[in-house]
Amino acid sequence: MAIIRILVLISLVKIINASRSTAPIIKTVHRGGTHFEGPHWSQEENALYWVDIMEQKVHRMDAQTGNVTTKQIGYGLVSLVVTVQDNPGTVLVSVRTELYLMSWNGPANDSALRLLSIVDLGLPDNRCNDGKVDTKGRLWFGTMGKEVGTTVDKDQGTLYMVDQHNVLDPAVWVRPVTVSNGIAWTQDNKFMFYIDTPTRNIDVFNFNLEEGTIRNRRTIFSFEANNVTGLPDGMTIDRDGNLWVACYNGGKVKKIDPRAGKLLEQHKLPASKVTSVVWGGHDLETLYVTTSNFGLNAAEHIQQPNAGSLFAIEGTGARGLPENQFIYPGAAEY
Fold first, then answer.
1. 233 catalytically annotated
2. CATH code at 248?
3. Is the pTM value of this prediction over 0.90?
4. Is 147 annotated as a binding residue?
5. Distances in Å between the alpha carbon of 280 and those of 47, 50, 223?
6. Which of 97-111, 189-203, 222-236, 293-307 has the lowest mean pLDDT?
7. Is 249 annotated as a binding residue?
8. How many CB atoms lie within 10 A of CB 74?
9. Among residues 120, 134, 233, 238, which one is catalytic?
10. Which domain holds residue 165?
11. HSE on the CB side for 275, CA within 13 Å?
């Protein structure tokens, strides 16, 4: 009997130690933001880019040193940043409803911006929101209507696709939308996932990579039907085909199996307004998470002192896919 008890005790200790060693760790990477959003990982540079929408800033962190450098745009709300293929040091950023090329080591402030495209003409209160690049180098990005506090005008936005050939007239793919947000593709490029935040749904389209087209929209996961708190915001996908979704006003990142429409796991952040996620690190095993403190009341600011920070979740057991880069030949000389 004593031997059995010892064996049981040893087994319990092993289980406890295993759970401790595999439990994900959440680290605070960079503090001091207001509304961090739009993280983009550059494997070539071993660097993370992201924006602070309200502060009109673009940040870049060298992953090896942890050093963060910042570009102050000072021209309008900034919502997305992606790197440009074969043009080291050049990024594409959105400001208001315009897309610009910008040299990271170029002039300060908006003098570094070179206008590439503009959308939503005639809607001066609109702005760009989230965007992602597909494996052919095309940028899929969306807009949203006028914001008053945390309220957004309904059905004023659009999901666009822009590439090197249509910068003067980006293709319209979904209209109307209210808050165009997270985008992700399956590894085989047969499906594109999409979030229009106020619907509280994650939708999927059939995706034609060669033609750059989407069709047959349907919902694969409903926050309401699954009793999930908050709003779906930014999104990414791992190598197993599972989605990782930021829950704005939900304080969590959700891992979802889109094939089964099933919630697999969740990770709680020390901030209620979780805005977006991206895989990074040399092995793409670190999940970077952006958060916001915009709209928090005085008590919530005290309760969430790290809201508006960049976090990293390590040890999830998942790995991401490389982020694609915008293709625009001659971007450095544009």
1. yes
2. 2.120.10.30
3. yes
4. yes
5. 8, 12, 26
6. 97-111
7. no
8. 14
9. 233
10. 25-314
11. 26
